[in-house]
Amino acid sequence: MVQGDHEVEHHGIARNTLHARLQRMRAGGALRDFSRRVDPAALGRGLTAFVSVSLSQPQGRRAIDALLDLPEAIEAHATTGDADLLLKIVARDTQDLHRIVDALFAVPDIVHTSTVISLNEEMPLRMRALLERHAVTGSDPGSRTR
I need a labelling partner for 93 at 20 to 30 A (CA). Which of 18, 35, 40, 116 fits? Predict the structure, then answer.
């Protein structure tokens, strides 16, 4: 995140001030795990798919807990609509994806899935524009409301 003392001096922020702000942002949940910057393709997982999952019960806590044991499931979101969860899955190829989707049916409470394969990432995760807009509004990015 910070390239060294030169970057800190260039932006006119004291090193201790910057460190304190970063710590506050981490503690407040504004800064997430740095592993989000790793490209799955660099780990041999160049295929991305989105799997809509229907659960037999609406809470789905058992399913979420079981999905933590599936490393290829790199994101999970509770959703509205026909499905209860939307998973982002990374795989080596379609055969590997088939194996992963089959493994989903061993997860408690999963009763139906629907898979869509990403052909290309047209807009990677981006936060700069949001951060810039947020900076203009003047609110603290370390505070979160849920």
Answer: 35
Other Cβ atoms within 10 Å of 14 Cβ, number: 10
CB 112 within 8 A of CB 44: no
- The C-alpha atoms of residue 47 and residue 115 are separated, in whole angstroms, by 12
Q: 25: which 2 tokens?
A: 């942002």
Evaluate if residue 4 carries a pLDDT over 60.
no
CB atoms within 10 A of CB 115: 16
Do strands 73-78 and 110-117 pair parallel, antiparallel, or not at all (unpaired)? Answer: unpaired
Residue 111 is encoded by which pair of tokens?
């009763």
Whether the CB-CB separation of 60 and 109 falls below 8 Å is answered with: yes
131-139: long-range contacts at Cβ-Cβ below 8 A with a sequence spacing of 24 or more?
none
**pLDDT tens track for 53-75:** 999 976 678 899 999 999 999 99
Q: Is the pLDDT of residue 85 over 90?
A: yes
